[in-house]
């Protein structure tokens, strides 16, 4: 018996298989758009962020950021929104500027300005990629990755202090996946003006398959170290069907955070779509995470 498939059907089938296999890796593409486009209603502007403690060579490679502000003179409290990392190294340079407009709008509706820095080696930011944690097989160095990520996030904190329309006394670090981990690492440095952290599906070392990351105990140890110097509340928001960091890992990490003195809240939402790791990206995910974030920030005076 022969099954005849037209060329068009074959292309469609191949695309479906490809998307099913790579959905986790390609989620960052939801943030892409015309790099020259500016959302006037969000007062979007492209900004240059000097790298903290830059060497003479690094001063030539500042970070690229995107700033969104609500209407009015401010000063506005600020969400520094930190991006994740593509599954394929070659895709990092394709990220451009991280422009999740519906998600940004949700924060501006809460009254926040949103600053989105591109870390070194990602998209529109030049410089060498600095966030490698080595090999899972030989012992990942999540502490080194966190230190480099924190440096870029803290550079964005410094930038906030340079803008009169931004309230440098009310800063929230937020991020998804690698961006959530970057937010935790930066918060551990206790920067002045930091008020809270929103960690959405944060971590490193996930495989996008079964929710079991590599070396979860090593990550727990790093998180415990961060907790000892984190002085603001942290929201940990994960989905039950996260294929990178499943409930066993994320709940264990939060437990390590609490035992080490960290303050905050762990929220596990029901399964979302094919992979709950992508909850933040999805339009239909906004009504799920937004009320949780809004209530958390309200509880802490934001």
What does this protein look like?
The structure is a single chain. With 302 residues, this protein is an alpha/beta fold. The chain is 31% helix and 18% strand. The protein has an 8-stranded mixed beta sheet with strand order 1-2-4-3-5-6-7-8, with helices on both faces. Strand 3 (76-82), helix 2 and strand 4 form a beta-alpha-beta unit. Helix 3 crosses helix 4 and helix 5 (216-227) packs parallel to helix 6. It is globular and about 45 Å long. Residues 1-25 have low confidence and may be disordered.
Features:
single chain; 302 residues; alpha/beta; eight-stranded mixed sheet; globular
Secondary-structure topology with pairs:
Blueprint: H1 7-22, E1 45-49, E2 63-68, E3 76-82, H2 101-109, E4 113-117, H3 142-160, E5 166-176, H4 178-187, E6 194-200, H5 216-227, E7 234-239, H6 247-259, E8 264-269, H7 286-299
Total of helices: 7
Instruction: Measure the end-to-end span.
Output: 66 Å
The percentage of residues in β strands lies in 15-25%
Strand order of the largest sheet: 1-2-4-3-5-6-7-8
Helix content: 25-40%
Q: Please trace the helix and strand order, writing H or E for each element.
A: HEEEHEHEHEHEHEH
Morphology: globular
């Amino acid at each position: 018996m022969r099954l005849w498939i037209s060329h068009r059907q074959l292309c469609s089938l191949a695309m479906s298989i490809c998307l099913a296999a790579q959905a986790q890796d390609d989620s960052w593409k939801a943030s892409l758009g015309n790099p020259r486009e500016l959302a006037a209603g969000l007062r979007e502007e492209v900004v240059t962020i000097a790298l903290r403690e830059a060497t003479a060579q690094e001063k030539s490679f500042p970070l690229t950021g995107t700033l969104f502000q609500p209407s009015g003179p401010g000063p506005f409290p600020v969400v520094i929104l930190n991006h994740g990392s593509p599954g394929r190294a070659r895709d990092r340079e394709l990220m451009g500027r991280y422009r999740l407009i519906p998600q940004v709008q949700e924060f501006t509706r809460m009254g926040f300005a949103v600053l989105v820095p591109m870390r070194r080696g990602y998209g529109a930011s030049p410089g060498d990629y600095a966030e490698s944690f080595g090999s899972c097989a030989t012992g990942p160095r999540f502490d080194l990755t966190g230190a480099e990520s924190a440096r870029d996030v803290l550079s964005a904190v410094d930038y906030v202090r340079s803008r009169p329309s931004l309230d440098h006394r009310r800063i929230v670090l937020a991020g998804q996946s690698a961006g959530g981990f970057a937010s935790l690492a930066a918060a551990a440095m206790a920067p002045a003006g930091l008020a809270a952290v929103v960690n959405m599906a944060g971590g490193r070392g996930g495989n996008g398959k079964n929710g079991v990351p590599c070396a979860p105990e090593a990550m727990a140890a790093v998180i415990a170290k961060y907790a000892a110097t984190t002085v603001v509340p942290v929201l940990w928001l994960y989905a039950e069907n996260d294929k990178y960091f499943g409930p066993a890992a994320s709940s264990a990490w939060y437990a390590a955070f609490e035992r080490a003195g960290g303050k905050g809240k762990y929220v596990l939402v029901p399964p979302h779509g094919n992979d709950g790791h992508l909850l933040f990206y999805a339009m239909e995910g906004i009504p799920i995470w937004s009320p949780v974030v809004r209530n958390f920030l309200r509880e802490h005076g934001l």
